[in-house]
Amino acid sequence: MTLQSVLDEIRERPGTGDVIPVIDPSTEEQITEFTDGGAEAVNEAVARAKAAFESGVWHEQPARERAKVLWKIADLMDEHADEFAELDSLNTGMPLAQAKMILPTSAEFFRYYAGWCTKVNGNAYEVQMTGGVSGAYANMHAYTLKEPHSVVGLIFPWNGPIFNACAKIAPALAAGCSSVVKPAEETPLSALLLDRLIREAGVPDGVVNLVTGYGHTAGAALSTHPDVEKIAFTGSTEVGKKIIEASTGNLKKVMLELGGKSPVLIFDDADLDMAIFMAAMGIFVHSGQGCVCGSRIFVQRGVYDRVVEGLATVANNFKLGSPKEEGCMSGPLISAKQLKRVMGYIDEGKSDGVEVVTGGYRLDRPGYFVHPTVLAGVDPATSRLYQEEIFGPVVTVLPFDTEEEGAALANDTTYGLAATAWTTNLSRAHRIAKKLQAGTVTLNSQLNFDHNVPFGGYKQSGWGHEFGREGIEGYLKTKSVWAQL
Ligand code: NAD
Q: Where is the Aldehyde dehydrogenase domain (predicted)?
């Protein structure tokens, strides 16, 4: 499948709503366009998914056969790796080399969850109570069955299109669910190629159903639909709350992977060269459009000046460019809307008197590029840019004195997605890991990921987990069965 055929295919998708342009954010030029599928496309997709589930065509297949199909999807993705990388780099503006690195990791979700297909088991229980209505529980047997949610809605954002798609579709398929998949309206392209390969691998019709459209139309219709049992959502906290509200009609189960304002603590005993470089990478890579990006850096006072200077040096040498530019380390922001949002926070900071150590401006070239920005002198109590998720290459740096003060500053946020600490003191490292209020804590490292390690947010960063055993558990229901022997 050539790139052009995906661009053509999306134009021809049926829809009844607005025409949505697909923009290359590194040039601001339109690549293609499509019509919003809206509620109508969602209703049709849910009906197909429901019929497929009720027919048993997928979840009643032997688990080992489903596993083979998942494995086949991964193999097909590897065969089409270059096309996926090209589509996602064109659509998000991320460097082609980075898109090429993300693709094998994305495909691997299918191999990882292929392994789980045959390992979904309930438990048998010792019944220990005595008494009860029947007088005694003698010779009672109780066990649990794990059963798939029937129709699940999978909604995800633009910042890692193919990764986000695979992180949800793979465990949903492994569990035996039927799904309706809605990628972000900004980045629908790689989902089309994946959809085609899913069918080529042997997933029966109706089991995975792609809908393309806006969040407030298609996404909203999916999250209110009475035949959808569960929504697995990745996106902003603001929309996550809307999903919860929309789910009350039929009390859908909801899994949410939401925003973050992740702290990075750098102690004076840290390997400073490494800490500075990684902390800078941890916010400037992908132009800060990563949920776990460390956007608030706290530095122990004795090394504060050195760290601030080091961050500025990395920022000033951080080469931004369009996907195929030589040596490019990061692409642009995703859209004009996101550019306006990021520059809005920076401009507000400037008028509040925040110190701009470096950056703080849009590059003078086509594309939504913002220079990596380091800000100091922020007032934690009043500054919106310090408190709210910006989702851009903007980091605030503040000093702290004691471990307790550092932890308190780090935890002073409504978010709780990720946190990092840099220290060579082993005891402190583990003490601080316990203190930090985040679903993922990273010690002397940053931006880690493995399919086997659960990922989820504390506080307003989410509900539930993805990846690992928890990732498939989220698509399963537990039924308790009692039997009198
Ligand atoms: P967003 O919340 O605006 O959109 C995410 C998805 O939800 C899109 O597909 C969108 O079309 C859809 N949507 C929008 N409104 C909807 C509605 N009313 N009902 C149903 N669906 C709706 O987020 P975004 O701007 O696309 O992505 C950036 C956000 O995603 C950031 O907050 C970031 O932190 C978060 N994110 C979180 C994780 C994580 O794992 N925790 C990973 C990546 C991104």
A: 18-481
